[in-house]
Design a protein that fits this description.
Metallo-beta-lactamase, Chain A; binds zinc ion; alpha/beta; seven-stranded mixed sheet
Amino acid sequence: MQRPTSSLLEEIEDSPSNDSVRIWGLSGAGFVLRCKDDVIYIDPWLVPPDVKRTTHRTYPIPFAPGKVTRGNAVISTHEHEDHCNVATVKGIVESSGAIFVGPKSAVNKVVGGGLPESKTVTVAPGSFVSISHSFKLRALEAQDPYEPLAVVILIESERGNILHSGDTSYFSGFREIGEKYEVKVALLNFGKQIPTPEKPYYMNAEKVAMAARDLRAKIVVPMHWNLWQETREDPRPIEPILKSMSPESKFIIVEGGELLQI
Ligand SMILES: [Zn+2]
């Protein structure tokens, strides 16, 4: 991991092309992946939250969506605002020519917000989309208690597969994914156990470690914990639990603006 030396967007778009897969954190569930000159955004949220929201953003917006010039796809795991924001999606699609990929509810949301349907690809568990030379996408089953159409995303690349959990709870599907696919990097949601411990928005440390074990993930990156003041949770206690449950998994924290290279 290394800190960006220039502005984050300049680093993403203007740094020399190479064959590795670079994964930048945007904070929350947002990530940008680049391999060669192919760039994809997963669950970016690049606008100030609605003032009526009861949750408050902790990490500043790294750049405006309309400034993005490189983008093959913007992907949303589900239609919730912090994973699928119309202004963010439209901004990136219009300024870069990217396509939008998401489940039906997310596509309906962005099309309802004015994005041409021709710029969208609807996915459901089992879908496969060839996004670019460097990135292919598989939509997999999720179990998000707050969004029935949510999907887990597996991005396939020459450097290995990158899994983005969206806001799924821990469920048996992780084991099925781990048996079927190699997972090099698992981006797994993590946060405070609210609104209730029985039905939290995010996984706790133990569930993250269990998911990593089931996925046989080589690298585990907790995400989402740094988005809201109200659900902010220190991810470091995951590491010892992960070490006992999944000793092969390497634990890496990627803050907003930081880079993980594989
Ligand atoms: Zn979320």
